[in-house]
Amino acid sequence: MDECDAIRQRSLVTVPNERTQAVLHTRAFLELFVAGCLSDYDNEDLKAHVQGLLRHFPNSSDMHMVAIALPKAWGPQWAGPFDAH
User: Fold this and answer.
1) Per-residue pLDDT tens over the stretch 26-50
2) What are the domain boundaries of the chain?
3) CA–CA separation, 75 vs 67, rounded Å?
4) Please, what is the Cα angle at 53 between 48 and 54, to 5 degrees?
5) Mean of the pLDDT values across residues 2-7?
6) The 3-state secondary structure of 19-85, one letter per residue
7) Whole-angstrom Cα distance, residue 19 to residue 55?
8) What is the mean pLDDT of the segment spanning 69-74?
């Protein structure tokens, strides 16, 4: 299994509360980043933190299920600039 396959497999062991916390913690992290509050951290520390956030972050399948379950709150997916085609 290569690194990309390992990344795809990680989200399979996430439970709902971990996914919720990942979204909330990622938002908080991004707000700190944009505010310039993370400048004291080196790239390796930031990379390790981001990897932790992504471990349970919703993937495209999760978002598809949410969009079906809550169509008034979540819309359909679109192909973003980093999506594989």
Assistant:
1) 999 999 999 999 999 999 999 999 9
2) 3-69
3) 5
4) 95
5) 69
6) HHHHHHHHHHHHHHHHCCCCCCCCHHHHHHHHHHHHHCCCCHHHHHHHHHHCCCCCCCCCCCCCCCC
7) 9
8) 91
